[in-house]
Amino acid sequence: MGEKRTFLQIRAAHNVNLEALAEAAQVPIEDIYYLEAGVPYPQEFVERALRALAALTGEACTRETVGGIYVKEEEEGSNA
Description:
This protein is mainly α.
């Protein structure tokens, strides 16, 4: 079917503003902005944002269906 739509494209297509999405996800609005810009975030945050986007748009929004979302690698101790 081609490339996946981005988080921002889905949000814009449904006229969902950043404030409403941040409120639904219970996260700071700045974090949603940075997530849309491609900044990696922990998996728990990404999943929370995607669930909020799905709830507000009625679309299935997962890491498999939404493009441009990056999960930050967990840093568990140093192997140096």
